[in-house]
Amino acid sequence: MTIKVGDKIPSVTLKHLGADGMEDLSTDDLLRDKKTVLFAVPGAFTPTCSAQHVPGFLTHASEIKEKGVDQIICLSVNDAFVMNAWGKDRGTGEEILMLGDGNGDLTSLMDLTLDGSGFGLG
Predict the structure, then answer these.
(1) Quick one: CA dihedral 79, 81, 83, 86, positive or negative?
(2) Could you tell me which residues are beta bridge partners of residue 15?
């Protein structure tokens, strides 16, 4: 599946661990009437994702939001506990919403799965 600007994200439930505990967030509710930058990484705490991907979006978050973006979301096939810990470790605060696609539902529906065993994943 080739993803293009304006494509509809499939309807799934993602997990977020916030100040009030575990939340189920539907993509329909999460993305409705919002301009969103959604980026996905192969795994939390991986070297490149930790050193480049998340810091890059964090560094440029205000510039991105100045262009009319309402929210920046980081998605990974990790559970919400790991995504929460990784967000704290990277200092994402309120700038990037860290979401877990623990069962890979969204990742699979968007045909974004990969065999990461050659990279120490999986």
Answers:
(1) negative
(2) 24, 100
Q: Give the pTM.
A: 0.91
- From residue 7, give the alpha-carbon distance in Å to each of 31, 38, 74, 76, 100: 12, 12, 18, 19, 21
Task: Return the active site residues.
Answer: 49
β 36-41/21-26 pair status: unpaired
- HSE at residue 93, side-chain half, CA atoms within 13 A, is 8
Cα 75 to Cα 52, 109: the distances in Å are 15, 14
Tokens standing for 45?
């705490």
Mean pLDDT of the chain: 92
State CA 6 to chain mean position distance.
Answer: 18
Domains of the chain: 25-112 (3.40.30.10)
